Amino acid sequence: MAGARPQQALLSRDTDLSRTESTRAVIEGMVDGLNDHRIADIGEFFSEGFGWHGNQGCGNKTGLREFQDNWQKPFQAAFGDKVCIDEARLYMGEWAAAFGRQEATHHGPFMGIAATGKRVTIRYMDFWKVVDGKIVDNWVMVDFPHVLAQLGRDVFNDEGWEAFDRGEKIPPAP
């Protein structure tokens, strides 16, 4: 059975490859700023009305203030010693992407769990669009289920597909 063939890559179709190095400079500076735990002056890298589009549990932020108040501050309250380690970064014109992990100690409230003092790994992927030297959009996937599992909470109630990988359950077939 053939799958649907919707139009693909609309957002990046008209990418201007001459902007690759300027995009790289913005993203590298921003990641350094996040690793320095900057909040008040992080706007140096973001347009005032930028969109931050997170997966379930992360939320969606519109504008710098929402990003600072509803992402940076609670994240740093939960994981104040976090260090971001991008395992790969890709740049293409005004677009950039990265995946990696943050290593941190859980020392503040996170998703209803009080501080445990446990070290955690927080896996993520980011996709950014940079226009005129500022990030205008950021699509984010943060693996909160993995973090919660490290803190003793299985959000999948033993129904995660890892059981297939371990041979504990048989996966359904179409």
UniProtKB/TrEMBL annotation:
It comes from the Bacteria. GO terms for biological process: polyketide metabolic process. Pfam families: SnoaL (PF07366). This is Predicted ester cyclase. It comes from Jannaschia helgolandensis.
